[in-house]
Automatic annotation (TrEMBL):
PROSITE patterns associated with the record: NUDIX, NUDIX_BOX
Organism: Mucilaginibacter yixingensis
CDD domains: NUDIX_Ap6A_hydrolase (cd03673)
Pfam families to which the protein is assigned, alphabetical: NUDIX (PF00293)
Keyword Cell inner membrane listed: no
Protein name (database record): 8-oxo-dGTP pyrophosphatase MutT (NUDIX family)
């Protein structure tokens, strides 16, 4: 977390030095079974600091959506043993909104009825061929009015596509990624985004 204020429940976080922080080095350290799971960097200007981090690493842009059907249920995919939202890398020259719709349709086998406003942008780090990269994902509100059968994109590692109602978000919350928690919190589907230790 890059923040301008000390986070709530600061006792579960480890504070990192903002002056000497390097995302590539940090990611390698925490990948080797760090005992801490929550970290924060305290700085005067979080946006400016984030730009500095982005400039030091390869940035991949992606887009996805939180799809709601006419019954008020939300669409999730199951990939890599976790519940996730459909998303994927933007193609060359593709806009974020266009890419978000394409990825949702490809990964879930449905046609989106409406792509609405942007919810939030999230960031997460991972490795590709041994290189640490940062992925920025643009998330959009989407609507689905059809009754078609959901079809997971198996070649992308998706084994299940399922609708969840708002009352069943705990099943998602206990087995998802921090960036997905950010999307759900922004949409007020969950309240506490601090992942369990």
């Amino acid at each position: 977390m890059i923040t301008e204020t000390i986070p709530d429940r600061a006792e579960i976080f480890q504070k990192l030095d903002s002056e000497g922080f390097d995302l590539k080095t940090f990611y390698a350290k925490i990948s080797k079974r760090s005992k801490h799971k929550h970290f924060y960097i305290l700085c005067d200007d979080a946006k400016k600091y984030l730009k500095k981090v982005i400039a030091s690493i390869t940035l991949i842009k992606a887009a996805g959506g939180l799809v709601k059907n006419e019954q008020g249920d939300f669409l999730f995919i199951y990939r890599n043993d976790k519940w996730d939202l459909p998303k994927g890398k933007l193609e060359k020259g593709e806009g974020a909104r266009e890419g978000a719709v394409r990825e949702v349709e490809e990964e879930c086998g449905i046609s989106i009825s409406k792509c609405g406003k942007r919810i939030v942008n999230t960031y997460h780090a991972y490795t590709i061929k041994g290189e640490v990269v940062l992925k920025k994902t643009y998330w959009y509100k989407m609507k689905y009015k059809g009754v078609g059968r959901l079809k997971p994109q198996i070649e992308e590692g998706i084994t299940e596509v399922r609708w969840f109602n708002k009352q069943h978000m705990d099943a998602i919350k206990t087995n998802t990624f921090p960036s997905i928690m950010d999307v759900l919190e922004k949409m007020e589907l969950i309240k506490d985004t601090v992942m369990p230790l």
